[in-house]
Specification:
Helix content is about 65%, strand content about 10%. The C terminus is likely disordered. The protein has about 325 residues and is of the alpha+beta class. The radius of gyration is 26 Å and the shape is elongated. A 4-stranded antiparallel sheet has the order 3-4-2-5. It has a two-stranded parallel ribbon with strand order 1-6.
Length: about 325
């Protein structure tokens, strides 16, 4: 961290190159979404939680892990498996298949599990059908959750800082969400409820990092004579002053997530990958998207405080006789 203590990197001068990088990432993501709609009928690879499917709860007589069940059901191609209730209870979510009833799905699962663990070592507790209507409702609620997070972010930052800070934070957060969704569409990562939780976590992480930078910008703006300082120089200085904190937070978070990716198993792999991507994008956007966006908004809106101070000085100045 001592290496970054007196950092003087000119981040804002690189903003046009950053614009190109962000534009390319967004174009690739949007292109993947459009391609998915044309070829697959959906812009994302929605899982059972959103599209509907068969839910089968299985109770084992002996200790069995979710990994063991996953291997029995096809390894990487196995449907989502989660522990439910007691230690030996698991829920298997199989996608809907045209012309296949829920009873047939349950029977096929029983055959596969019996072949792997032996007949009589488990009991099918229940089988349920999760309809597509429920999936559509979950999609709507997930979208509303993200929309409300944007709205509350704008309100909070507008009150805590100024409206221009809030607008810049929303631009950066929207950028992070679109890039993440583009990545998910490009690599056909399955969208389940944990994935939505990961996306919301990403937005929170990105916003937190952005607020740290913005808070330092505001502190520097409030110093004597700072309003006459070159905005590019001031924002660069603020980013460099918070750079040790940004690097430390990002690296420690990534270290934990990498451990989860390696040791956590397949059940949380997609969740962890989305979080890793989000930390990288959030760190990038707080420096190369949010701060340049604030500068561009500042150029168009002006500094209200400076205008107010200038107006006060003009009104307080004695009248010059003609």
């Amino acid at each position: 961290m001592r290496f970054f203590k007196n950092a003087q990197f000119k981040f804002i001068e690189l903003r046009r190159k950053a614009y190109v990088v962000s534009a390319l990432a967004l174009l690739v993501g949007v292109g993947a979404m459009v391609t998915n709609v044309i070829t697959q009928g959906s812009w994302q690879n929605y899982g059972v939680d959103f599209t509907g499917g068969s839910l089968v709860e299985v109770r084992f007589e002996t200790d069995v892990t979710a990994g063991d069940i996953r291997q029995a059901l096809g390894g990487a191609q196995a449907p989502p498996i989660t522990r439910f209730g007691q230690d030996r209870d698991y829920v298997i979510r199989a996608p809907l298949q045209e012309g296949v009833s829920i009873e047939q799905v349950a029977e096929e699962l029983e055959v596969q599990l019996s072949a792997a663990f032996g007949a009589g070592t488990f009991t099918v507790v229940r089988t349920e059908l999760v309809g597509a209507t429920v999936g559509e409702e979950l999609q709507q609620k997930a979208g509303l959750a993200i929309l409300f997070s944007f709205l509350l972010t704008l309100i909070y930052i507008a009150i805590r800082f100024e409206l221009r800070f809030g607008m810049a934070a929303i631009i950066a957060t929207f950028h992070d969400m679109l890039v993440t969704l583009g990545f998910l569409a490009l690599f056909r990562v399955e969208i389940a409820l944990p994935t939505v939780a990961a996306i919301l976590t990403i937005l929170g992480y990105s916003l937190n990092d952005t607020i740290v930078v913005f808070d330092r910008i505001r502190e520097n703006l409030n110093r004597k004579g700072a309003r006459k300082r070159d905005p590019v120089e001031l924002i660069n200085a603020s980013i460099n002053e918070t750079l040790p904190r940004t690097i430390l937070t990002s690296t420690t978070t990534l270290a934990v997530l990498m451990a989860l990716l390696v040791l956590g198993g397949a059940i949380i792999r997609d969740f962890t990958i989305v979080l890793i991507l989000g930390v990288l994008i959030g760190t990038y956007s707080s420096i190369f998207v949010a701060s340049p966006a604030l500068l561009e908004i500042q150029k168009r809106m002006g500094d209200r405080k400076s205008k107010k101070d200038a107006s006060t000085r003009e009104s307080a100045a004695p009248a010059v006789p003609v």
